Amino acid sequence: MLLSVREIINTPGKKLSFQFSMDLSSVEFGGCCPVAQPVVVTGSVRNMAGVLVLTGKAETTLHTFCDRCGKALVIPKTVHFEHMLAEELANEDEADDEIILLQDGYVDVEDLARTAFILGMDTKILCSEDCKGICPVCGVDLNHGQCTCKKEADPRLAVLAKLLQQDEDEA
Fold first, then answer.
1. Are 90 and 78 within 8 A, CB to CB?
2. What digits encode the pLDDT tens for the residues 157-166?
């Protein structure tokens, strides 16, 4: 969504609001596409003493899975972003990632929101901070109880395990 900021560019104290939705349902995160619903983006551009400041937030609900136990999750996701806008930079060599150059008085707010949302995604999603995951041998969910798997001894300690077993048999 291209947003024209021409009407506030020379008027300190003026504000311009925006709202739109984006479809990110085809964007893959961690092997799945968790953004099943549109991402609603709201925000504003404010002229603060001659400096244009764009603030916004992108909100949706993610349909995903816990990275430890595989439980299906539906969780809200909100990403906030902020950028300064400028028609030109005083010194091109000192370009800043937070300063976005306007193109003929327009800024691509959708591109900024999409980038912020993608970069703001969690690298690990858990159903709870203390999720125990699943047993790597039998697949039992360790959050609901212990598994009955016998722990395998380190093969380097097999001789010691045999000695301990002999001691138990003799006793």
1. no
2. 888 878 888 8
